[in-house]
Amino acid sequence: MSSPSIVWFRDDLRLADHPALRAAIDRGEPVVGLYMLDEESQGIRPLGGAARWWLHHSLASLADDLRARGSHLVLRRGDAASVVRSLVDDIGAGAVYWNRRYGGPERAIDTELKDGLRSDGVEVESFAANVLFEPWTVKTGSGTPFSVFTPFWNAARNLPAPREPLPRPREIPGLRSAPAGDDLDDWKLLPTRPDWAGGLRERWQPGEVAARARLREFLDHDLGSYDAARDEPSAGATSLLSPRLRWGELSPHTVWHAGVETGGGTGAHATSASRFLSELGWREFAWHTLYHFPELATKNWRKGFDAFPWPALDPAHLTAWEKGETGVPMVDAGMRELWHTGYMHNRVRMVTASFLTKNLLIDWRLGEQWFWDTLVDADGASNAFNWQWVAGSGADASPYFRIFNPERQAEKFDPKGLYIGQWAPDSAGREPIVDLAATRKAALQAYEAVKRAR
């Protein structure tokens, strides 16, 4: 009698470069894929609305890919420990494999489950798949985590190069019939009343096949202009790979080696490739920071920032920011792009975040939560990490006194008004809800409390 292998898919919704899946195939027994919607385990953060939309379509794509190769994807809902153990018992599994997670609650869940299953005689292994370098391998000379990106990335680049990605399997042995599981539609991940996802459907096609196609398109046609035009929101020079990496439709190893191969040589193309690969490094830095500071989404990384005197919240200001009705063209354009597409250009993310925290003096955690709910690429590390960077409370933080002037940012990066004209054409002549100069001064005065707390 066979003892099937379970591959527990998490934020790695792909077949290519999936070490856990490869291990299951190599074991030689039938393989069953599992994805669970865990909204019950302690500390697990519920997904935002845009993320749930993406998840639905990416899971549908993954299920089709597994079925086409002879296996099945079982969907179940509940707390991780109960669901995995239940499927092990249902099919008499002899092994469970997964790729590692790096958030605090997730690591605790995985460790407890691994120990428990092993004590019951089930083979359990976890694998490095979703970061280029394991978080405990990149350390300062004194053995502590890095707090600044450049020395972090230099140290990482001095380690052995990221491994080559594993090929996409052609066949996956499966059971004759799929174990019982939920119907994806019953999870109600898609919005219905109202259906606000029309813009997401226009912009995105989730799934591994589409992700690999986008990677190839970017490298073949857009990489050469990346360094020169990446900060211009209307230029279309960015990779648009962030949701693909967030959901693991592409592994960072796949992206890394494709970028290295395409960007070889000298000149502008090589410069752009180096810049692009450093953005993968920034993603690494965010995940490493989360590993060492699991409360990144709720607590200031810089403890001195706890003294920052956030004023009482003005709900009208927060709502105006969320809806893109601040009267500041670059800010409003970004927030409307976000609502319509589930995405925002990175330069504009910095501008909108700076405006919220430093002109409206609204706590970065409220902005982080809004992005968590509306971005298709919001993950447990980068979203909070980047908000803290802009706010001045995080690792390698933009100094608090560096306040993005949204008008100058528009003049520099959208000089023809193409981006603003697309997303906020009604913004010309509107009065901003706050005075930019006066609120900048107020933010600098408030920051004095942080300086005194050091």
Automatic annotation (TrEMBL):
UniProt keyword annotations, A-Z: Chromophore, FAD, Flavoprotein, Lyase
Alphabetized Gene3D superfamilies for the sequence: 1.25.40.80, DNA Cyclobutane Dipyrimidine Photolyase, subunit A, domain 3 (1.10.579.10), HUPs (3.40.50.620)
Cofactor(s) this protein cannot do without: FAD
Domain Photolyase/cryptochrome alpha/beta: 3-132
GO MF, any single term: deoxyribodipyrimidine photo-lyase activity
Protein family membership: Belongs to the DNA photolyase family.
Entry protein name: Deoxyribodipyrimidine photo-lyase
Organism this protein belongs to: Microbacterium paludicola
